[in-house]
Design a protein that fits this description.
Length: 220
């Protein structure tokens, strides 16, 4: 489990989670939400040449296999997993529900198998849904051989009320070695991430931070 990189070098890893729960998939199918792929955000990351680590849920990869392959091919990005269907790994994890202990290992393995099929460069980075974990979850997942990537700066872009709030949150809290969590799915769940990312990237770079992937951040 890592929460941030070395303090000292002025480097920061921006990470983006692609959630897809069964309830979100229902909203897609009902047409209430057009897409849970924020292509405007990815476009900005490419234009600004921002390396990033993306954590994908299994349901998201099943919904967007072509996008997953495109992201995998892009050398700016590295991909890790974010569970199969984004259920919580602890009893009380927001409104995510709870994955039974006996199902934890199979759940993450299912996501890893999906990612390996779509991404020949797949990493073994993993992020817990909602950032929720405890000793039991870590114990259950040990055989999967993953490294859980936590965070020290929540971007708070989930259900944000404005892009400015997200920019302020990230620029106000990021420091050397930070791992920042934002979201890739957009839609009703993270509506302003694409508008916030430009000011965030420019703001961090103006302060002399180099933006890197988690692998680069943790490299000796
Ligand atoms: Zn998530």
């Amino acid at each position: 489990m890592i929460q941030h990189g070395p303090r000292g070098p002025k480097r920061i890893a921006l990470t983006f989670d692609a959630d897809l729960t069964v309830a979100m998939r229902e909203r897609l199918r009902a047409g209430t939400v057009r897409s849970y792929y924020n292509d405007a955000l990815v476009e900005q990351l490419r234009t600004l040449r921002v390396p990033a680590t993306l954590f994908l849920t299994g349901l998201w990869m099943e919904q967007y296999p072509d996008h997953t392959k495109e992201l995998a091919k892009d050398s700016l990005f590295e991909l890790g997993t974010h569970s199969y269907d984004h259920r919580g790994f602890t009893k009380h994890c927001y409104t995510l529900g709870t994955l039974p202990r006996a199902a934890m290992l199979d759940d993450v393995r299912r996501a890893v198998v999906l990612l390996d099929r779509l991404d020949p460069r797949a990493t073994r980075w993993f992020r817990f849904p909602g950032g929720c974990y405890d000793g039991t979850a870590l114990h259950e997942l040990a055989p999967a051989g993953l490294t859980a990537v936590g965070l020290d700066v929540p971007g708070a872009d989930g259900f944000a009320k404005s892009p400015q709030a997200v920019v302020k949150q990230v620029l106000g809290n990021a420091r050397d070695g930070s791992i920042v969590v934002l979201h890739l799915h957009g839609g009703d769940n993270a509506p302003y991430t694409d508008e916030a990312i430009g000011p965030i990237v420019r703001g961090l770079r103006a302060r002399g931070f180099e933006l890197v992937t988690v692998t680069e951040l943790m490299a000796p």
